[in-house]
Design goal:
The protein is about 80% helix and about 0% strand. The chain has helices at about 10-50, 55-60, 65-95, 115-130, 135-160, 165-195. α4 runs antiparallel to α5 and α5 runs antiparallel to α6.
Length: about 200
Amino acid sequence: SVQQPHLSAHRVSHHSRVLWISFHFHHVQLLALANHLCGLDLWEQQQQQKPQEDPSELLKNNANIMKHLLSAGRLYEYTIRLERARSHQQQQQRASAAASYNPSSYPALFVSPFVLMAILNNLGHLHVIMQNETQSEKCFRQLQSTLMYMLQFQNKSGSNTNGRTSANSTNHQSMIQVFMENASLGLRTTRMTAAAA
């Protein structure tokens, strides 16, 4: 007969919390993206119906559009808090690992840094649209910092590849390039908006 592995309630409970946070993160991220896209679609429809009006005024005067965009912003911010909670849980798990407990036996539940950069990018975009220059700049600066950290990490780890490149690293490079361009454009847009005000 096959013997079932022995798991303490603490280990199962901890693993369940990390799994729940990871699942919840992705669910909330999708809701944020749905609200973001819905708000942008509604805004575009309004611009097509009333091409003579200022787009920023259309946005401010339409409660339905604002509801979607504000919901998206709150949900993006919540995903960042969830990722921090998940990261904290994972750090606690590593710190309190008992001799009989092997954390590597559990699946690695993490969120790709590219997902977090996409969230920062989207959140910065929302703040640009809603003319919240301070928050927009904060998001794009955080995105730039994350990108710089990733580039440093890639440069350090890239020296260990003996000149090999993979499709995965090529994809990462192109994603980093896109995020870098978006962060630069977002910061320039924020500065121009602030200067015009």
